[in-house]
Design goal:
Number of strands: 27
Bound molecules: 4-nitrophenyl alpha-D-galactopyranoside
Mean pLDDT: 93
Number of helices: 15
Radius of gyration: 22 Å
Low-confidence stretches: none
Distance between the termini: 64 Å
Structural class: alpha/beta
Amino acid sequence: MPTLHLQSDSLPQTGDTKIVTASSLHLSLSQPPKSFYRHGWQSWSLTAWTDPIRELPVMKPTSFHSRQTDPVYARYPHPNGSWLGAVELEDGSILFLGALELNAHVAVREGQLQGWYESGGGEWFVGRGEEINLFGKYAELLGQRFGRVTVQEHPRVWCSWYSLYNNINENNLAKALNGLGDLPFDVFQIDDGWQVSTGDWEPNEKFPSGMEAIAAKIKATGRKAGLWLAPLAVSKHSSIYKNHPDWLLHDLSGKPYVAGFEWSAEMYALDTTHPEVIKWLRELIRKIRGWGFDYLKLDFLAAGAQPGKRHEDIPRETAFRRGLQVMREAAGNAYLLFCGTPILPALGVCDAIRVGADVANFWDSRFYSYLLYNQTTPSMLNGLRTSVNRLWLKPLVHVDPDVAFFSETKSLTPQQKRLFLDLTEVADFKATSDLPHQWTEAQREEIRRWLESRPRVERIGRYTFSIDGREVDFGPAMPLPPLPNFFDGIVGGILGVLGNQFWALKIWHWLIRYALAKKDSEKIA
Ligand code: 9PG
């Protein structure tokens, strides 16, 4: 299939759109654009309007690339994004280029907006005109090709992660469940920490009564029982790693591909083209359904879409989607929330997608966002920024911007909390991890009102919305931090090198774990 070059005079005029088939497509820009919409590959990857000329600094530490962004393009020297991109022109209109199939990438270089498929070719949507309208048309076309969510009701979720982290057990979860009382949460979701290891999806010693018992307890309160798992990731400590090395994705040199690091060990990825992996995935999801869970948060999914050598030689996102579809079938009518997932391959398979980085009970981390120039690590700002820039996905799938905080936190101002609550109204996805016994009566009533509210939301501009007539502007939270100055660059460089040393990561993870455990034991006590 050819590369197609389109000059600006053959580009759609304002308001026009077209669908073009090509392996790559080069749209000449007659004027330097004002900004570039970069779309991050997976849930946590930065999505924002950015500088159209100068690429952002390479995100550090680079050892995080495979779990935070698309590692194939993490060092690409020009502004770029996954599947789609747009440039803003002088007159305020945008030029939009979006792939209608998987395995595609977009960049601005040499005065062109370029798009290409990693293998073969496919259809592209090209349009020029008003931004909200073009993103809307693109979403419509994606819906026709990939499918869209059919479940109407948006679940209201209590999730254990952002208060208890890994320190969950039968008792503190039971306490949280009781504490919810009659608050209208539809789902009680158990997050990371219940399993023997990543890959051995059986309850650990903190769940001696087993998962069926806790699912039954949750359902007795009239709620859906939710469970977190990372089905495509495999820890070095897992039995799969020991017993089935051939199930893993391999790098080109034949070694198991390292898809990231968990607390103390390398994490590997399953090869979703391997027939035995497919069988194992099907049985895993059926087992969890059999325990009684009917809301599954499937996390670290990007592991399955990493580049590498597979049993069957097909493009990585195609292989990945195949694995997702098997899990969808096995899950029946359970509600599926995909997290840490490449976005396009998940469309039409799940009910909801986490569309931003993890939030945290602080606004921003100077350490990560300035020194390491990493906008994907947990912070309220990183969660909010990427989620707001992904709201165009809403007609296709429920968009989960992550949890809101109500309890007193030292480092979030009421305005910052309010802005995130406004985002949950716009996204129409409400979740929290707060420990109910820490809420005051007034906070419980605030939460009840929040869960019950169904405001009329209208989009006014790129970052402005009207919520029941009240105007909300996410704009001030959208700019990226300034590029590191000379001094920050040097400090960041040293930290980045440290962050790539396994021993340093281990110490770092151990310190975080210690800090969380300490904080949580204080909270739970
Ligand atoms: C459980 C958590 C929670 C959370 C998920 C995910 O290295 N990282 O970039 C990174 C990003 C997110 C993350 C963990 C690591 O959190 O988003 O809601 O379920 O896993 O471990």
